């Protein structure tokens, strides 16, 4: 029982609203939570019965002072053996049928479903790329989705093994090296922001490989898609424009043109920089600051923020870092 109480306590301690499988925010997560409830209930009942019987036997048949006799030696009991074989079989069937049903149900392929929003997820050390193949839009770190459709995901990796996971919306799906593509789907009927995590150890910054799923209504989503395709004015200062071209846009993209590295379009409206520096006007912790401060911190020394990141520390003066950060922070999207 103390063990059980400890488990419950531990589980509820993980109850941060946006990172809890115990507070599902969509039908896929709800079904998975249903399985958890079923198995945990059965396990708790089994544990209670076993503990009560064990406790009774320990007390009732303990050696009493002065008792030197040897207890009755039992060599086997067919009736008991059948009972303790059949009961687990029945329990496994009770757990197994809904589990298989749910697993196969949630594996339904929506990649050809014209009513579903198609999203291609590519994991990189240590960031997430999101492509909407039918909309001609690519973004990073924040997956924006409408709340009124099924979102069909094709997940792959550009390098090592990662796992795509938004605890309150859906279970983990691995992204496997070797060209393997895994598919899944989810629905997010409630607008809001849901925290996602890489759930497979993938290198020194694995624990920093966070992302967000931002759920908005249909009108906002359409505005966002349009805004993502709007051309962006380059920095007014020619020196900054040249720097940006040379130092940033050799890898990054701004806008709908494809690039191997994170698209910076709208980075000024994101909730984080590099997925881990929280953009806020009221910083409380070390990893928090304004968009501009976070961009400065990130550009000035990427390795200090995310060890092992492929983003190099480029040769820039403090003023140049400031100027680029200021320009990027101004890349905001209205939607
Ligand atoms: Cu990517 Cu852990």
UniProtKB/TrEMBL annotation:
Protein EC: 7.1.1.9
Catalytic activity: 4 Fe(II)-[cytochrome c] + O2 + 8 H(+)(in) = 4 Fe(III)-[cytochrome c] + 2 H2O + 4 H(+)(out)
EC top class named in words: translocase
Gene Ontology molecular-function annotations: oxidoreductase activity
Superkingdom in the source lineage: Bacteria
Keywords of the record: Copper, Electron transport, Heme, Iron, Membrane, Metal-binding, Oxidoreductase, Respiratory chain, Translocase, Transmembrane, Transmembrane helix, Transport
Membrane topology summary: Multi-pass membrane protein
Residue ranges of every copy of the Cytochrome c domain listed in the record: 235-332
Residue ranges of domain Cytochrome oxidase subunit II copper A binding in the record: 114-227
Cell compartment(s), UniProt: Cell membrane; Membrane
Cofactor section: Cu cation
Residue intervals passing through the bilayer: 40-61, 82-107
Keyword Transmembrane helix: yes
Residue span(s) of domain Cytochrome oxidase subunit II transmembrane region profile: 13-110
Co-factor remark: Binds a copper A center.
NCBIfam families registered for this protein in UniProt: CoxB
Task of the protein: Subunits I and II form the functional core of the enzyme complex. Electrons originating in cytochrome c are transferred via heme a and Cu(A) to the binuclear center formed by heme a3 and Cu(B).
Protein family per UniProt: Belongs to the cytochrome c oxidase subunit 2 family.
Protein name: Cytochrome c oxidase subunit 2
């Amino acid at each position: 029982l103390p063990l059980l109480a400890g488990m419950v306590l531990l589980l509820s301690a993980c109850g941060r609203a946006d990172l809890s499988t115990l507070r599902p925010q969509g039908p896929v997560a709800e079904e998975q939570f249903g399985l958890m409830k079923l198995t945990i209930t059965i396990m708790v009942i089994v544990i209670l019965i076993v503990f009560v019987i064990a406790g009774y036997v320990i007390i009732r048949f303990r050696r009493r002072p002065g008792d030197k006799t040897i207890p009755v030696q039992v060599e086997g009991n067919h009736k008991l053996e059948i009972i303790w074989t059949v009961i687990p079989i029945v329990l496994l069937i009770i757990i197994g049928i809904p589990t298989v049903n749910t697993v196969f149900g949630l594996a339904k392929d929506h990649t050809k479903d014209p009513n579903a929003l198609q999203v291609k997820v590519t994991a990189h050390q240590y960031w997430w790329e999101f492509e909407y193949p039918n909309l001609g839009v690519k973004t990073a770190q924040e997956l924006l989705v409408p709340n009124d459709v099924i979102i069909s995901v094709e997940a792959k990796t550009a390098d090592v093994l990662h796992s795509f996971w938004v605890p309150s919306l859906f279970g983990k799906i691995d992204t496997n090296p070797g060209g393997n593509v895994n598919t899944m789907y989810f629905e997010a009927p409630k607008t809001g922001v849901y925290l996602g995590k890489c759930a497979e150890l993938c290198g020194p910054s694995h624990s920093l490989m966070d992302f967000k799923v931002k759920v908005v209504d249909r009108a906002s989503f359409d505005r966002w898609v349009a805004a993502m395709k709007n051309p962006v004015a380059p920095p007014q200062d020619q020196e900054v424009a040249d720097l940006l071209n040379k130092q940033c846009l050799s890898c990054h993209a701004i806008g709908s043109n494809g690039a191997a590295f994170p698209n910076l379009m709208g980075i000024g409206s994101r909730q984080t920089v590099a997925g881990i520096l929280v953009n806020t006007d009221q910083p409380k912790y070390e990893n928090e600051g304004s968009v501009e401060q976070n961009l400065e911190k990130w550009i000035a020394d990427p390795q200090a923020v995310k060890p092992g990141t492929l983003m190099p520390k480029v040769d820039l003066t403090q003023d140049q870092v400031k100027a680029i950060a200021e320009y990027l922070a101004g890349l905001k999207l209205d939607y």
